[in-house]
Design goal:
Blueprint (H helix, E strand, L loop, with lengths): L1 H4 L9 E10 L2 E10 L5 E3 L2 E3 L6 H6 L7 E9 L9 E3 L9 E6 L5 E7 L5 H11 L7 E2 L13 E6 L8 E2 L2 E3 L15 H21 L4 H14 L3 H11 L4 H10 L9 H14 L8 H10 L8
Parallel strand pairs: 4-12
Antiparallel strand pairs: 1-2, 2-3, 5-8, 5-9, 5-10, 6-7, 7-8, 11-12
Helix pairs in contact: 4-5, 6-9
């Protein structure tokens, strides 16, 4: 709404199917975008790809290989007892190398869902989690955007987990959000990363157009910006691997040693948590508990996680 008021054009039901490179005397000066929709072809100096996990520009221009993905799905549930906080469950029995959640909404509604590497078993696992726990018997409904009369089913999709793509910009192209592989390695959340990368891309596009230079070299500052800002993916990934090597008993002990509020933990507080864990269960040292704890720290909302 605000973008349209500021002069943007919103064109729904349009699908990009081709990009034709334009040059003037050998210098790149834009793209002709082809596709399905009555407004095509569309001429653009710069294309910012926000196509999600589909990664349309990467596919059309062969910029990056297809990413590895996990499945995420949820139900909308009524009259959910909640204290107003978002609940996380790291429970491999139901969510293999993933987690489950309860996200409270208005009027007693909540989204209850999971993300898991077991894509084929996601629906069955979520149904079992609800049936076997505190949410059993609660009424589930279709989301409001789904047509009335449709059979009840969950909603969601796939989430890229391969990490940031090697190529996130080229002549007149920038990839943002899921299209660039920007998701949190531990919890697979991506909203914060998508919004920040969009801001960086818009800033970079404005600078390039003002300078009359749409080349990859000019747009390279976009990659520099997100790499400087975003948390260290590889470090968090090592922590994720360590975390999922822990048993349910290890995870329960880890949870008991954390304070209720982690945002105020200083260096000494983090050190004390580590000491308590190792005193109670020295074997955790060999399971690389420290990288797992650091991954949790980097995955807080403050650092573009959940």
């Amino acid at each position: 709404g605000e973008a349209v008021e500021a002069g943007a054009q919103l064109r729904l039901s349009h699908k990009l199917t081709g990009l034709e490179r334009q040059e003037n005397d050998g210098v790149f000066n834009g793209w002709i975008c082809q596709g399905k929709g009555d407004q095509f072809p569309i001429t653009a100096k710069i294309v910012i790809d926000a196509s999600g996990v589909a990664g349309v520009c990467s596919k059309l221009l062969e910029l990056n290989p297809r990413p590895k993905v996990v499945a995420g799905m949820q139900y909308e549930v009524l009259d959910v007892p909640t204290d107003g906080y978002l609940d996380f469950y790291i429970w491999p029995k139901y969510a293999e190398k993933g987690y489950l959640w309860m996200i409270p909404k208005a009027d007693g509604r909540a989204n209850i869902g999971l993300v898991t590497e077991n894509k084929k078993g996601a629906v069955k696992a979520l149904d079992q989690f609800i049936e076997n726990g505190e949410f059993k018997g609660l009424e589930m409904i279709n989301p409001p955007w789904r047509k009335e009369g449709m059979k009840l089913r969950g909603f969601g999709g796939t989430i890229p987990i391969s990490g940031p793509h090697e190529v996130t910009h080229t002549d007149g192209i920038m990839l943002i959000g899921d299209a660039a592989g920007f998701t949190s390695p531990l919890f697979e959340g991506g909203s914060h990363l998508a919004l920040k990368s969009a801001s960086f891309a818009a800033q970079t596009a404005a600078e390039a157009i003002a300078a009359g230079d749409l080349s990859a070299a000019k747009l390279a500052i976009y990659s520099t910006r997100w790499k400087t800002e975003f948390p260290p993916y590889e470090k968090i990934l090592r922590g994720k691997t360590a975390l999922y090597s822990l048993s349910d008993s290890d995870m329960s002990l880890m949870g008991k040693c954390f304070p209720e509020e982690m945002s105020s933990m200083g260096i000494s507080g983090k050190a004390m948590v580590g000491i308590r864990l190792l005193v109670r269960r020295p074997s955790l040292y060999f399971k690389k508990i420290v990288p797992a704890m650091l991954a949790f720290g980097y995955s807080r909302a403050k650092y573009y996680g959940w």
